[in-house]
Amino acid sequence: MAKTCPSCGYSPIGPFTDNCPICAEPVRNVRSDRARSPWPRGVSPWLRWVLGGAAVVVLGAGGCCGLGMWRMGAAIQDAQQAMKQAIADAEADRKAKTVVVAAADLLQEFHDDPAAADRKYKGKYLEVSGVVERRGKGLGGAPFIILHGGDEQAPIKIECFLNFADEDDTRLDKGQAVTVRGEYGGRVSHLQIRGCVLVR
User: Which of 9, 16, 24, 175 is the most exposed, fewest CB within 10 Å of its CB?
Assistant: First the structure.
């Protein structure tokens, strides 16, 4: 079940993602969504309070007269602009932390100097282009795909854990070239990328 960030409201966040991909707020112990929020993704709780308060003030001050309706219309437009700006800011922040890299180059860096490569990519979002070796489901039914950089015999591969919402992305064929985007999650037996979405 997907999670929602308590700080910025971004959703869905996969069950294996420890931090929000938008604002980096820890979401490890956040409960899974039971109902969808009426607010768009990326709208922070403080913005929700401001917008709700503005609506109460406008409705209370204007009553049923035309002036109140005009104020409410202006407040709604301002709120829509604020939401668009908050979403744009969150996306810009994510893009600033995104590193585009080929699977072969990424795997070579970890082969040459694992510690330096781990420091380089810690806290980053990766957009990785590679070749599908296999796909499947892990513990709890979490979908994943494993990528390599062109060498199926390489000892290190890239495990991409997909959000449950993107489960259809596991319908990929072996040998298919794909690009995925997600948060670097360290190395266990292979490199981990969490909260992955299929870019192309």
Answer: 175
Helix/strand/coil for 167: helix
Structure confidence by residue, pLDDT tens digits, 154-197: 888 998 888 765 555 456 788 888 888 888 888 878 888 888 88
The pair phi, psi for residue 75, each rounded to 5°, is -65, -40
Secondary structure of residue 144 in the 3-state scheme:
strand
What is the rounded (10 degree) CA torsion for 27, 32, 36, 42? 10
Domain ranges within the chain, ordered by starting residue: 1-96, 98-198
Helix pair 66-96, 45-62: axis angle to 10 deg: 170
Distance of alpha carbon 58 from alpha carbon 40, whole angstroms:
22
Cα-flanking dihedrals φ and ψ of residue 146, to 5°? -115, 130
Residue 10 CB coordination number (10 Å): 24
User: Which residues, 6 or more positions from 38, have their beta carbon under 8 angstroms from its beta carbon?
Assistant: none
**What pLDDT, in 10s, does the model give residues 75-89?**
888 888 888 888 888
Contacts of 117 (CB under 8 A, 6+ apart): 106, 109, 110
Classify domain 98-198 by CATH architecture. Answer: Beta Barrel (2.40)
